[in-house]
Design brief:
Number of domains: 1
CATH architecture: 3-Layer(aba) Sandwich
Distance between the termini: 47 Å
Mean pLDDT: 97
Order of helices and strands: HHEEEHEEEHHHHHHEEHEEHEEEEEH
CATH superfamily: DD-peptidase/beta-lactamase superfamily
Number of helices: 12
Shape: globular
Structural class: alpha+beta
Helix content: 25-40%
CATH class: Alpha Beta
Radius of gyration: 19 Å
Low-confidence stretches: none
Largest sheet: 5 strands, antiparallel
Strand order of the largest sheet: 5-4-15-14-13
Number of strands: 15
Oligomer: single chain
């Protein structure tokens, strides 16, 4: 009930794995560190819809706790605030969804999952009778499952908040997924349902026979030289909070962005299949296009902004971002603890405003 209170939120977001059950993902024994490039400065100001914001004041008003910029494979900007540091494992919230997508692509490449056209219940018969029965995996992956769900964080009795309270007391996420009902035709409407990511994680675990944390450590953490251990929150049955429970350092978040900037390759090795990496950031149906969804479209658990040149973003509530721009060869990661995130009309909690800041940084850095 008080996890997001003003005086507690910053400490809670950098210590979630102390508050809940969590599984540790070991750091790589061969850590990769981004080489230091010439440090850039943030633009003095940027504009959005006729309003001008001073960059540093904007980040302060958005309760930013960590901010990092990678350009041309070099670390060119890194700042921490309010007690955070390079070793702080900060909660991902929904940025974890993009990591789960990467693991799903790897599992398909390894032959554990045959096709995105398969129905969810071919792997998860316990979801027969739920809103997921007969739904294609691809529609779940693209947030188009047609499941009835209210994702409004401001409404106490919304589905996402009901799920959150149950998770806090250790209840089974699998059972919650099985309780959801059908609402609309799958594959016709972009409707963001966080539990979709949990269903994908259930498939990964069932198909590979490995826990999500174990699979992450094996397929991403070790090969990519992650500098620090990570923690994945889990329920009392040991199932990870796939939809948002990763706790990672800012630099290691940046490596996830860098991996997708390089179309799934890392150090000359194809970690995530190239075809999957490209499809992940490419909306492929009318209902997924940015122009039909108020600025942001959707791929395989990555957001794709309107008016960009190949940009894509992983986003989490309370201002968590991994922004990737292939044209400027730039990755920007933000961790925040914005207790005012749910205020209507708050520009310091608006991903569209953050997007303009990111674009301004890229424009200035390439002048």
């Amino acid at each position: 009930m008080h996890l997001f209170d003003e005086g507690k939120i910053a400490d809670n977001f950098r210590g979630m794995y102390h508050l809940f059950e969590a599984k540790e993902i070991a750091a790589s024994d061969q850590p990769f560190r981004f080489p230091r490039g010439e440090e850039i400065s943030l633009p003095d100001q940027f504009t959005f819809e006729g309003s001008t914001y001073k960059s540093r004041e904007y980040l302060n008003s958005a309760f930013t706790k960590g901010f990092i910029v990678i350009q041309n494979d070099e670390l060119v900007y890194e700042k921490y605030f309010s007690g955070n540091s390079e070793s702080t494992r900060h909660i991902s919230w929904s940025m974890a969804k993009s990591v789960v997508s990467a693991l799903f692509g790897i599992a398909m490449e390894e032959g554990f999952i045959r096709s995105l056209d398969q129905a969810v219940d071919e792997y998860l018969p316990e979801l027969c009778g739920s809103g997921y029965e007969g739904v294609r995996i691809k529609d779940v992956l693209q947030m188009s499952a047609g499941v009835k769900f209210n994702e409004d964080y401001r409404a106490f009795r919304s589905d996402i908040n009901k799920w959150g309270r149950r998770f806090a007391f250790g209840s089974s996420q699998d059972k919650f997924a099985a309780s959801l009902k059908h609402e609309s035709e799958p594959g016709t409407k972009l409707h963001y349902v966080s539990i979709n990511t949990h269903v994908l994680a259930m498939i990964i675990v069932r198909a590979t026979g490995k826990g999500l944390s174990e699979y992450l450590e094996e397929k991403l953490w070790r090969p990519m030289g992650m500098e620090y251990s990570a923690y994945w929150l889990c329920d009392d049955s040991g199932m990870e909070l796939a939809l948002g429970g990763l706790n990672i350092t800012l630099r290691d978040y940046a490596k996830i962005g860098q991996l997708f900037l390089n179309q799934g390759a890392w150090g000359g090795v194809q970690i995530v299949p190239k075809e999957w990496a490209l499809a992940s950031v490419t909306p492929d149906a009318w209902h997924l296009m940015p122009e039909n969804n108020k600025v942001f479209g959707y791929g395989y658990h990555w957001w794709v902004p309107q008016g960009g040149k190949g940009e894509f973003i992983a986003m989490g509530v309370y201002n968590q971002y991994i922004y990737v721009n292939p044209v400027t060869r730039m990755v920007i990661v933000v961790n925040s603890a914005n207790h005012r995130f749910n205020e209507d009309g708050n520009p310091y909690a608006d991903p569209k405003v953050f997007l303009e800041l990111f674009r301004a940084i890229g424009k200035q850095a390439t002048l």
